[in-house]
Structure prediction request, 309 residues.
Amino acid sequence: MSQLSVNHLLGIKGLKREDIELIFSTADNFKEVINRPIKKVPSLRDLTIANLFFENSTRTRLSFEIAEKRLSADVVNFSASSSSVSKGETLIDTVNNILSMKVDMVVMRHPNPGAGVFLSKHIDARIINAGDGAHEHPTQALLDTYSIRERLGNVEGKKVVIVGDILHSRVALSNIYALNLLGAEVMVCGPSTLIPKFIHTLGVKVETDLRKALEWADVANMLRVQHERQDLKYFPSIREYSQMYGVDMNLLNSLDKDIVIMHPGPINRGVEITSEVADSPQSIILDQVENGVAIRMAVLYLLASKIDR
Ligand code: NCD
Prediction:
């Protein structure tokens, strides 16, 4: 396969395993490029990409921008704080702005689930979803599974536990889809109030005891509690959450094997993982960030290759 089966990257749902494998092999090449002294290639010269961020972001926005610049695209950035955004108005405005700017590709983060799908139906540009509310965050799941493949040689057959706020996490949902497609075994672990009722329909194991989950796992992907998406109190206090669902060195050292520790960032040090764990040799958190650029270059490159030029 030399082309993606999709014209937009709206979610991992809808992708085939071969799409992910193509993205990975393309990212392998770009990873080599970004480690050269001259990190730039001309692949996307003359294409204009708009990064539309209606929700806060540091690393995802930077990572996309670096990826676009390494591919020699022209880049325009737009950010708005989510509080000033109302769904219908903003997306229609966005559509009109994009149409008049003759943009070829749009990378969009938006608080509303399905915002990317909506946009893809109304404009003639390739859309990449950089996070739509608590729904999907496909490039994060691609870089996460790519980082597992890099550290462990393969994703197939590996046991991955996703720990924390599963209910409000787009990283969890996209990771579950990607890990399932690649043949990993998936477990979610967290307080039962933060595990959605529909989770069993996704074919994952559920565990509320963190120690048991870690004893089972090869990899633990530790998520941040998404306070900004919580309208209720889902657990008594942060202190209690971190006692029950936080990973420290004592817990890691008490396991009879070395598990790989991941985190999509931003980390709340001392809540879901301690600083010592985040900075330990078992942690691949900075590899995830590095791989994010190569993965985003691959996705941009593969979608751009489907544009008539
Ligand atoms: C994640 C996100 O925005 O969903 N972060 C990211 O993309 N770097 C996870 C999070 O915010 O906790």
